[in-house]
Write a structure and sequence with these properties.
The structure is a single chain. The protein has 798 residues and is an alpha+beta fold. Among the domains are: 299 residues, Kinesin motor domain (Kinesin), CATH 3.40.850.10; 74 residues, no CATH class; 134 residues, Helix Hairpins (Orthogonal Bundle), CATH 1.10.287; 41 residues. It is built from 21 helices and 26 strands.
């Protein structure tokens, strides 16, 4: 068993045995089958290819003419039922047991890959592997009532080396703002930005499948009228929880159903323009896929080139990973396509060399695990109580201590330190830990008391703070040599250099008094050796001066704005149910701000917060400007007074230059600095006012957008018929919420009623097909509605 950690979650994977990839060949039926060139073995697992020698090469001709390929099965003239039973049924059934699975269709363009994977939606019997897999999943869920199984699906398209979400056209998903990217983590590879949809029933899954199929990119060329121009990956995610609360273990799995675009030779397909560019990207990605398969089949290769293209990167954990991998190679049976058939069969034989290691994906439910641990803890406490009673011990409490017990331990510790208590009785381990904790609390309190007592009497001054030292010198607390001038305080001693008024003969006595008083004061305050050492270090780096109050401290407050990156996991959307009666607009507006309009509301709040912050900064800047202006006025008055005093006393000149005293010179420098500060602050104020104006404009825009979107959402959510909600295309210039409610009618309602009645009558013998046809009809109705809306828009433009 291998354990992997990710954050607070733990993932366990049971290591399985290595097994080879299963590869099957399906031959497209044709009237012009090359019987002389293509033959099958008796075991129906071997296909032989024979070519006639080219006589144009001369007598010496070493051209290879015979090939034989050993595979897991050859499907010739096989029905869709037989193909699914042979290829996919075991993979899907094992997925519900926790094994990942991948089914991939590969082959030449027009060879029947899409028909094998998706099938024909016109006929229920001709459905392919994908819809049959969905049916099997929901059938098996019904057969497992002991487990709660959730199913989610996603549909990815890789077109011209770009990732697209085929289900982004749903109205409750919407287009993604950021491009999708392939992300790797310890649990595997996932597509960031790809929508994942919860499906509770079979019909919903079919609707999502048909929705994605209508968004696929197809084109026409000589060899295929409806050629897929992109690689598509339909993924089914399953999560199975046991309904037994004591079981915290659950399993997860996924099935990747891959429909690859067909390789094509440009000379045969005759592709031009956009189709030619698409063919280039398709052939390039298939070439990289083959290189990755060759590297996986070589046991000596250490590096596998998965990152060469988006296709191999997205399928990294499927190719040679911990999953069941099955390849279906679609080929032509005609002689004209024999070279492409050989190329496809070579790819299948290379895939047979790849080995995988299927493993069960197990996870642990944290909530259930906590509940089980709580039950186990209660059981262990009961067993411990029984053990104490058998050992004739008094009743011992093993629960966490309350405030009263902690206070009692604190009192015991203080009495033990004072000497009134000889020893502390030991009861259990929790009590010992709390005793040591209270020792630390008492020591910390004593240190704080000593420090606060010293700070009430003295102020620390940094020797490098010349401005403060200059102020102290002007105040007469320090001489010119930097020595402190101490005066006796109320206790009869002073700290620093004794003033000249004290007799020299008493200096040694004064120092002794200082030392004795400090020692006695430290003992009274309960100071310990660490505090004394700290005081010595601090006095060696700074100077002490008597002061009644400390200096001002300015605190800088920093605010960090955090933005979320997305989820490292795919997003999941659910459509809310419509209430029977619409709520009031104030109540609905609050719901709208928390749900559909949460992004606009978030932007509105952020812009408003920025606006308030800019206004606050502008107010503070204005106050600073006013303070600087007042100080400028005071400085000008003092400077004018000095000028008038100089004029009265007489002006002195030296070589034509006016000589002024130091005080007037300092006032001039101060005035110059104040004016510079004033200009800087005023420029900042102008910039802030411009920002405030712009932020106010953004706030008004967001407020208008929020109210407009709310009105549209309110109409769509509570007045527009529900059958039109799924038919609204995101980004359309006209939304149903903008149209009058009286003009919106349900399209095809009568036809739907008739079809439902006919369906119950005609499909009574095949009830399994009802959900398939229901999903098909809903998809067709949506397409008809979109065509009608597009025609309506074009009419309005004219």
């Amino acid at each position: 068993m291998m354990r992997r950690k990710n954050g607070d979650k733990r993932y366990f994977t049971r290591m399985g045995t290595r097994k080879k990839v299963h590869a099957f060949v399906r031959v497209k039926p044709t009237d012009d089958f090359a019987h002389e060139m293509i033959t099958y073995g008796d075991d129906n697992k071997t296909i032989d290819i024979h070519l006639k020698k080219d006589t144009r090469r001369g007598v010496v001709n070493n051209q290879q003419t015979d090939w034989s390929f050993k595979l897991d099965g050859v499907l010739h003239d096989a029905s869709q039922d037989l193909v699914y039973e042979t290829v996919a049924k075991d993979v899907v059934s094992q997925a519900l047991d926790g094994y990942n699975g991948t089914i991939m269709c590969y082959g030449q363009t027009g060879a029947g890959k899409t028909y094998t994977m998706t099938g024909a939606t016109e006929n229920y019997k001709h459905r392919g592997i994908l819809p049959r897999a969905l049916q099997q999943v929901f059938r098996m869920i019904e057969e497992r009532p002991t487990h709660a199984i959730t199913v989610r699906v996603s549909y990815l398209e890789i077109y011209n080396e770009s990732l697209f979400d085929l289900l982004s056209t749903l109205p409750y998903v919407g287009p993604s703002v950021t491009p999708m990217t392939i992300v790797e983590n310890p649990q595997g590879v996932f597509i960031k930005g790809l929508s994942v949809h919860l499906t509770s029933q079979e019909e919903d899954a079919f609707s999502l499948l048909f929705e994605g199929e209508t968004n696929r990119i197809i084109a026409s060329h000589t060899m295929n009228k409806s050629s897929s121009r992109s690689h598509c990956i339909f993924t089914i995610y399953m999560e199975a929880h046991s309904r037994t609360l004591s079981n915290e273990k659950y399993i997860t799995s996924k099935i990747n159903l891959v429909d690859l675009a067909g390789s094509e030779r440009l000379g045969k397909s005759g592709s031009e323009g956009r189709v030619l560019k698409e063919a280039t990207y398709i052939n390039k990605s298939l070439s990289f896929l083959e290189q990755a398969i060759i590297a996986l089949g070589d046991q000596k290769r250490d590096h596998i080139p998965f990152r060469q293209c988006k296709l191999t990167h997205a399928l990294k954990d499927s190719l040679g990973g911990n999953c069941n991998l099955v390849l279906v190679t679609n080929i032509y049976g005609e002689a004209a396509q024999l070279e492409e058939t050989l190329s496809s069969l070579r790819f299948a034989s290379r895939m047979k060399l790849v080995t995988t290691e299927p493993a069960i994906n197990e996870k642990y439910d944290a909530e259930r695990m906590v509940k089980n641990l709580e039950k186990e803890l209660a059981l262990l406490k009961q067993e411990l109580a029984i053990h104490d009673s058998l050992a004739n011990r008094t009743l011992v409490n093993y629960d966490p201590m309350d405030e009263i017990q902690i206070a009692e331990i604190n009192s015991q510790v203080r009495r033990y330190l004072e000497g009134t208590l000889d020893e502390i009785d030991i009861i259990n381990l929790r009590q010992i830990q709390e005793v040591f904790n209270q020792f630390r609390v008492v020591l910390s309190q004593q240190e704080q008391e000593v420090e606060s007592s010293l700070r009430r009497k003295y102020t620390l001054i940094d020797k490098n703070d010349f401005a403060t030292i200059s102020a102290v010198q002007k105040a007469g607390l320090m001489d010119v040599d930097g020595h402190l001038v101490g005066e006796p305080d109320g206790q009869g001693f002073g700290l620093g250099v004794a003033p000249f008024s004290i007799k020299p003969g008493k200096k040694s006595k004064s120092k002794k008094t200082i030392k004795e008083q400090f020692s006695s004061s430290a003992r009274k305050e309960g100071a310990s050796s660490p505090v004394s050492k700290e005081l010595e270090v601090s006095t060696s780096k700074s100077q002490l001066t008597p002061s009644s109050k400390d200096g001002d401290v300015k605190d800088m407050l920093l605010r960090d704005r955090e933005t979320s990156n997305t989820s490292d996991s795919p997003k999941e959307e659910l459509r809310p149910l419509r209430p029977s009666t619409p709520p009031s607009k104030p109540v609905a507006f609050e719901d709208f701000k928390n749900e559909r309009g949460s992004e606009i509301n978030r932007i509105f709040k952020e812009n408003k917060s920025i606006l308030n912050e800019r206004r606050k900064r502008a107010s503070e800047t204005t106050q600073r400007i006013n303070a600087i202006k007042r100080e400028i006025d005071v400085t000008k008055e003092a400077l004018n007074f000095q000028k008038s005093l100089r004029e009265k006393q007489g002006e002195y000149e030296n070589k034509g230059l006016m000589i002024i005293d130091e005080e007037e010179f300092l006032l001039i420098l101060k005035l110059k600095d104040l004016k510079k500060q004033y200009r800087t602050e005023y420029q900042d104020l102008r910039d802030l006012r411009a920002e405030i104006q712009y932020c106010q404009h953004l706030v008004d825009q967001c407020r208008h957008r929020l109210l407009t979107e709310f009105d549209i959402w309110y109409n769509e959510s509570f007045f527009v018929p529900e059958d039109l909600q799924v038919a609204v295309k995101p980004g359309c210039s006209i939304r149903p919420g903008m149209m009058p409610v009286s003009r919106i009618v349900s399209l095809g309602e009568d036809d739907q009623d008739k079809f439902s009645q006919l369906q119950q009558t005609m499909l009574s013998e095949g009830p399994d097909s009802i959900s398939f046809y229901n999903a098909k009809v809903k998809t067709e109705q949506k397409q008809n509605y979109l065509k009608t809306m597009m025609g309506f828009q074009q009419t309005q433009r004219k």
